[in-house]
Amino acid sequence: MNKNVFFREATLRICGRLDLQRAMENTLAYIQKIIPADALHIGLFDPATSMGRTIVRICPDHWPKVAANVPIPEAAVPRVTEEWRSDFSFGILNDAREEEPCIQELIGLFWPEDVSVLRTSLIMESRMIGMLLLAAAGCNRYDESHAELMGMLNEPFSIALTNALQYEEIVRLKEMLEEDNRYLHKELRHISGDRIIGSDFGLREVMQMVRQVAPLESPVLLLGETGTGKELLANALHAASPRHSGPFVKVNCGGLPEGLIDSELFGHEKGAFTGAVALKKGRFERADGGTLFLDEVAELPLGAQVRLLRVLQSREIERVGGTETIPVNVRIISATHRNLEQMVKEGGFREDLWFRLNVFPIMIPPLRQRNQDIPALLEYLVARKCKEMKITRKVHIPEGTMEFLRQHSWPGNIRELQNLVERGLIQSQARASGTAVLVLDMPRIPSLRPVMKNPDSSDEPILSFDDAAGRHIRRALEKTHGKIMGEDGAAALLGLHPSTLRGKMRKLGISKKEKS
Ligand SMILES: Nc1ncnc2c1ncn2[C@@H]1O[C@H](COP(=O)(O)OP(=O)(O)OP(=O)(O)O)[C@@H](O)[C@H]1O
């Protein structure tokens, strides 16, 4: 056997893949043609906790299974610690029966009876970074020539292990950063005061429902078109619930590739699949003690719906590649812009899951059905955007703008209005450099065209008679600035006698303060 060829071929395999497990599988397959080796194990030892940590283990199925973290038997700790600290380059064990009982016990945790083990220290920049063990069934399988060959590979093995550990650390730090980022984002929103505009007007009934259900544990399903504020309300529900000091974790079910859904929701164990270099907690585990917001829940594929249902029923998760069941205590809020009932009928959404999620549905009306909120929303969004864009000038909204905005059908709802405000501010700034007042002239924005509303559109929810009448009266009151009597009052506009209107307002719980 040519040692140079051995070194080159083995090194190619050791460093040939980013995924250390796969690289070691290839390496073992090559090495075992030259050196006796049924198994390869790379591990670390932490003297502070007396724990061994498995980084890679490849061995026949009937050999002992070794957990990711293994407590070293107490009596064996001094010897393992000494060997770990003493830079020894290799060690051969050809017959476990010759060892002291505590070492026999330790060997029994990792290897079958009648085994030979060749240990090599992996050293990088004079620092012990890990231990590489080759094992072969039977006694007396190793001699110094094998140790010499493995000694040649010390550097490539050390480099591969260092890279893998650094990669794992990066993944861990990235996850921590993402977590911190989410937390800070939430805090920032808190500081900037994410308000819900329209709680006393167009969202009054919605907010009543939010207040009713927030203190409970019941699942809530938020329904409404895109941009109507489902996420904002999910946040509000969490903030008003007894879980408010726990985490609020969002999952965008529509944005997850099918192959990653389970690992994202339930987490994965290290080595569960290629690329799973470290243990990862899923969103369920992260939301423990708090609220899990399943946004765009209708986009979940059917297979994932089954697994989600199982978890909601058992309140336990199993990480991908794991065997342990982990109890989780989360409150579920889900949201969709789709007609879930229809999807259930058509077989696109599981009925049993729908029943689970649909305990307390809240329908958020689209902006075109609550255009009385537009002035307040506009004022709020302009102030918010100005703060973000560091605009200190006073912003003037010309007459006619409001009426124009009321006529628009807002398919993108509040988000569309928000984007429009931003675009309007950018364009107004460009037009009016140096002036004290910024004129927000939104109708000039080419993309904004009034769209005819279609009151019969099939996606409009059918309101009860009282709700529809209440909404109509509020609109009239808003138009007349709360005035009821007189030619320009709401009663005249509605073709009613003022006392009849007052009676209806009393019955429907509409107060005079609802004028704009
Ligand atoms: N009532 C409201 N008052 C103030 N801001 C609102 C209101 N409703 C929505 N917004 C703002 O509009 C934007 C869109 O809201 P959000 O993301 O909650 O909508 P969504 O229904 O979850 O949208 P999607 O279905 O597209 O995910 C956010 O910036 C939110 O703060």
From TrEMBL:
SUPFAM superfamilies: GAF domain-like, Homeodomain-like, P-loop containing nucleoside triphosphate hydrolases. The keyword NAD does not apply. The keyword Hydrolase does not apply. Coiled coil: none annotated. SMART domains: AAA. Residues 196-426 form the Sigma-54 factor interaction domain. Keywords: Activator, ATP-binding, DNA-binding, Nucleotide-binding, Transcription, Transcription regulation. Pfam families: AAA_lid_14, Sigma54_activat. CDD domains: AAA. InterPro entries: AAA+_ATPase (IPR003593), AAA_lid_NorR (IPR058031), GAF-like_dom_sf (IPR029016), Homeodomain-like_sf (IPR009057), P-loop_NTPase (IPR027417), Sigma_54_int (IPR002078), Sigma_54_int_dom_ATP-bd_1 (IPR025662), Sigma_54_int_dom_ATP-bd_2 (IPR025943). This is Sigma 54-interacting transcriptional regulator. It comes from Desulfobotulus pelophilus.
